[in-house]
Write a sequence for this structure.
């Protein structure tokens, strides 16, 4: 039997109502959703996005209960500023882990930074991994356009040497759009996947680009609109790995219905049935 792969979307700083993407996910039968803590105050006083401190205990319980009622797997994307190599990064990551625990999420995602090499990153990340393990959460490390497959191979070799972090606490978030921009695999994200020797993929971010910029095009609206061979090959790679997790569509397109169309086509490739009945408005 094919492992279950969930499909969902993500909060978006471009959306005026921070909760609208979540309501959209529930209403359209998505079975995964990612909360990306990303907040900005504009020069004119407007505020876009949200962060964990915006949700009190009651709001967190509502999110948890709604997710349980509609079988939605939650993940949390830590703020982009949450770099464990920086002094301010660790508290941000701890805050994201605590939020994820409160809403019943599966994992917290952050970017891999290679400024101090794999050993330096792993050393800085160790207290975050211990906090996640205590909260019964996993950590996923996401590739940026600058990080290579070799960076991940070396980092996970160092992670394997940590003596006090249980197995399975940390894995990779494979971002196929970023893989398509990596200088060593530009316009060939499948080659990026194939070079991930021994790296456990536990989370996926899905978007497209044409190898020129991180444009976050919705699946099947970029290169795969004309030829979906790359997406088919990617699905085959996931199934070969017996991947069990979420594929997060990382955009809020206009119109948002493009997300439903992308999820429907992706489910068809995964040989999954259509989404279940719609939830509440």
């Amino acid at each position: 039997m094919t492992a279950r792969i969930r499909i969902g979307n993500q909060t978006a700083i471009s959306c005026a109502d921070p909760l609208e993407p979540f309501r959209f996910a529930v209403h359209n039968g998505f079975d995964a959703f990612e909360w990306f803590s990303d907040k900005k105050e504009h020069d004119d006083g407007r505020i876009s996005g949200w962060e964990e401190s915006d949700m009190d205990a009651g709001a967190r319980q509502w999110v948890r209960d709604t997710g349980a009622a509609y079988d939605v797997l939650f993940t949390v994307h830590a703020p982009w500023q949450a770099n464990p190599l920086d002094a301010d990064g660790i508290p941000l990551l701890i805050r994201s882990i605590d939020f994820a625990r409160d809403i019943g999420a599966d994992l917290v995602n952050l970017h891999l930074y290679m400024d101090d090499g794999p050993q330096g990153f792993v050393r800085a990340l160790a207290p975050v991994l211990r906090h996640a393990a205590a909260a019964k959460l996993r950590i996923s490390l996401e590739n940026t356009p600058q990080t290579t497959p070799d960076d991940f191979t070396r980092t996970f070799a160092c992670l394997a040497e940590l003596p006090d972090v249980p197995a399975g606490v940390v894995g990779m978030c494979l971002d196929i759009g970023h893989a398509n921009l990596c200088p060593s695999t530009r316009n060939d994200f499948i080659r990026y996947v194939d070079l991930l020797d021994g790296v456990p993929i536990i989370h996926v971010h899905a978007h497209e680009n044409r190898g020129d910029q991180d444009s976050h095009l919705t699946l099947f609206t970029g290169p795969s609109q004309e030829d979906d061979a790359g997406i088919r090959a990617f699905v085959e790679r996931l199934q070969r790995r017996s991947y069990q997790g979420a594929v997060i569509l990382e955009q809020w397109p206009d119109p948002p219905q493009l997300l439903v169309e992308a999820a429907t086509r992706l489910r068809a490739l995964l040989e999954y049935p259509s989404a279940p009945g719609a939830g509440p408005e």
Notes: The domain at 5-269 is CATH 3.20.20.150 (TIM Barrel). Confidence is low (pLDDT under 50) at residues 273-278. The beta strands are 5-10, 32-36, 38-41, 47-50, 73-77, 107-111, 138-142, 170-175, 201-206, 245-249.
